[in-house]
């Protein structure tokens, strides 16, 4: 794996409006699509701050900004809060079913989710091909976790399996079921599975200090954040006054 990591070639993407801090511009570095990825290597890339979108592994590479910080939950040490327990109680009627392919039912739910939750967000809900390209992964071990109330599909969590845990890729849900807290419930379910299968971590992607849409990730403790010297507990970094450097707009 060391040789594979050393032979990685990165390509720079073009600048675009940041999805987390809209007043800024963002840019990402991508692993060359010609490079053969597989789950074990991708797990190593996650520990270097990468994520995936479809088959593409990327990490933010913004000039003068380091606001996007990779975070993961230590599954075996997770302690649920009162709010988490209320969320679990609200969703105790749901059944989990794990699928290995995206379906037309998933796509219809995704369309409703985008139309209600992210209108004008740059993702076309009528583009079925883009839906498949965004969530599927030809080289990974990707699962589609369905949450159903009876036969009704209320949420889908896209989860990648890696050697050292689970990676939460994306979750979409019925916009008429907001009171359930389905995004939080999906993560709580992933934590339960990780603990049951003795997997050490659940990776949550990026956390951005000052981004309201990212604040929910701080409720999962202990949460570790990737720093130049490796993973450190977020609470310890905050106590040290060394929160991630948002720097100046790129």
Summary?
The protein has helices spanning 2-6, 39-46, 82-90, 104-117, 128-135, 182-196, 234-239; strands at residues 10-12, 16-17, 25-26, 28-31, 51-53, 56-60, 68-74, 95-99, 142-149, 152-162, 165-173, 201-208, 223-227, 230-233. It has a domain at 81-196: Gcn5-related N-acetyltransferase (GNAT) (Aminopeptidase), CATH 3.40.630.30. The protein has 7 helices and 14 strands.
Structural account:
It is a single chain. This protein has a domain at 81-196: Aminopeptidase, CATH 3.40.630.30. 26% of the residues lie in helices and 30% in strands. It has 7 helices and 14 strands. α6 links the parallel β11 and β12. It starts with a helix and ends in an 11-residue tail after the last helix.
Tag the structure with descriptive keywords.
250 residues, alpha+beta, Aminopeptidase, 8-stranded mixed sheet, 7 helices, 26% helix
CATH class call of the domain at 81-196: Alpha Beta
Element order: H for helix, E for strand = HEEEEHEEEHEHHEEEHEEEH
Low-confidence stretches: none
CATH architecture of the domain at 81-196: 3-Layer(aba) Sandwich
The name of the CATH topology of the domain at 81-196 is: Aminopeptidase
**Cα shape:** globular
- What's the β-strand tally? 14
How many helices? The count is: 7
Note the main sheet: 8 strands, mixed
Structural class estimated from helices and strands: alpha+beta
Q: Helical amount among residues, as a percent range? A: 25-40%
Radius of gyration: 18 Å
CATH superfamily of the domain at 81-196: Gcn5-related N-acetyltransferase (GNAT)
How far apart the termini lie comes to 34 Å
Mean pLDDT: 89
Q: What is the strand content?
A: 25-35%
Strand order of the largest sheet: 8-9-10-11-12-7-13-14
């Amino acid at each position: 794996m060391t040789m594979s990591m050393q032979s990685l070639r990165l390509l720079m993407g073009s600048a675009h409006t940041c999805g987390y801090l809209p007043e800024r511009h963002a840019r990402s570095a991508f692993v060359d699509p010609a490079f053969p990825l597989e789950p074990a290597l991708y797990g190593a890339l996650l520990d270097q701050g990468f994520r995936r979108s479809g088959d593409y592994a990327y990490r933010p590479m913004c000039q003068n900004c380091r606001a996007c910080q990779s975070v993961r939950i230590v599954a075996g040490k997770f302690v649920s809060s009162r709010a988490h327990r209320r969320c679990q109680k609200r969703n105790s009627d749901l059944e989990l079913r794990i699928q290995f392919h995206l379906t037309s039912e998933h796509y219809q739910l995704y369309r409703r989710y985008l139309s209600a939750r992210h209108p004008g967000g740059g993702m076309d809900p009528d583009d079925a091909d883009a839906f498949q390209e965004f969530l599927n992964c030809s080289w990974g071990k990707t699962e589609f976790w369905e949450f159903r109330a009876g036969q009704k599909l209320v949420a889908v969590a896209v989860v990648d399996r890696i050697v050292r845990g689970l990676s939460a890729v994306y979750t979409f849900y019925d916009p008429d079921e907001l009171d359930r807290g389905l995004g939080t419930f999906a993560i709580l379910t992933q934590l339960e599975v990780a603990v049951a299968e003795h997997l050490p971590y659940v990776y949550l992607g990026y956390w951005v200090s000052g981004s309201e849409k990212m604040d929910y990730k701080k409720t999962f403790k202990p949460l570790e954040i990737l720093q130049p010297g490796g993973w450190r507990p977020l609470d310890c970094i905050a106590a040290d006054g060394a929160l991630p450097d948002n720097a100046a707009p790129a």
